Amino acid sequence: DAKTTQPTSMDCAEGRAANLPCNHSTISGNEYVYWYRQIHSQGPQYIIHGLKNNETNEMASLIITEDRKSSTLILPHATLRDTAVYYCIVRDSFGNEKLTFGTGTRLTIIP
Amino acid sequence: DGGITQSPKYLFRKEGQNVTLSCEQNLNHDAMYWYRQDPGQGLRLIYYSQIVNDFQKGDIAEGYSVSREKKESFPLTVTSAQKNPTAFYLCASSMGTESYEQYFGPGTRLTVT
Fold first, then answer.
1. Cα A17 from Cα B56, distance rounded (Å)
2. Does B40 touch chain A (CB under 8 A)?
């Protein structure tokens, strides 16, 4: 799996959009970008994933650059419950079940 | 409700004892996984199973053992051979191969003294 680089921590004001960047410059053509988050002392929660196109669901939007070397997770209206560690992961789709978690970005939502 | 359950939430053992952590899912998922998380770190894969009666080692399998006799169950045994067993253990499941998301249980925090 390709490695990812994320900022160690970020703050965001409650009600504003939280934009979490991720660099994955060595990503290959069959690798997806996944985002998970982990609230303190709980299991990680799947947020969203994508291959080439931008994706949106009820939780977030994922913007992937045209060269696929970086992406941004957007939480459109951050709430205090969005305070968590956010992990950006790249993973291929051909039988490789492994998710390689780095240390992620610790996002703190400020009231 | 569908989901993954892990029990117990907290577990305490004496050094030298084997301990088995429970993981059950009712999502009808084929694949199941065990991860370990140390403070301030990401998750590391211990073992995974893509189908009943089959499992593969992950990155840090030494000192651990698993079984997959039933689709819904994937217990992890932490043996006395594991040098640093104190950690947060997370179980997950997914539908199978390709680009499926993994669903995680609430975790078991194991403390060995």
1. 41
2. yes
Phi, psi of A48, deg, nearest 5 = -165, 160
The answer to whether A42 faces chain B, any CB pair under 8 Å, is yes
The helix/strand count (H/E) of chain A reads as: 0, 9
Amino acid B98: pLDDT: 60
Question: Cβ atoms within 10 A of the Cβ of A14, count?
Answer: 14
Cβ-defined contact of B45 to A98 (cutoff 8 Å): yes
Would you call B23 an interface residue with chain A, using a CB distance cutoff of 8 Å?
no
A30, A49, A97: which to substitute to probe chain B, counting the most B Cβ within 10 Å? Answer: A97
Q: pLDDT, tens digit, for every residue of A52-110? A: 989 999 999 999 999 999 999 999 999 999 999 999 998 876 655 677 888 899 999 99
Residue among B89, B108, B87, B106 nearest B25 (CA): B106
Contacts of A41 in chain B (CB under 8 A): 88, 107, 109
Question: Is the model's pLDDT at B97 over the cut of 80?
Answer: no
Strand ranges for B1-113 from DSSP E:
4-7, 10-13, 19-25, 31-37, 43-51, 54-57, 64-66, 76-78, 87-94, 103-104, 108-112
Q: Is A45 on the interface with B (CB under 8 A)?
A: yes
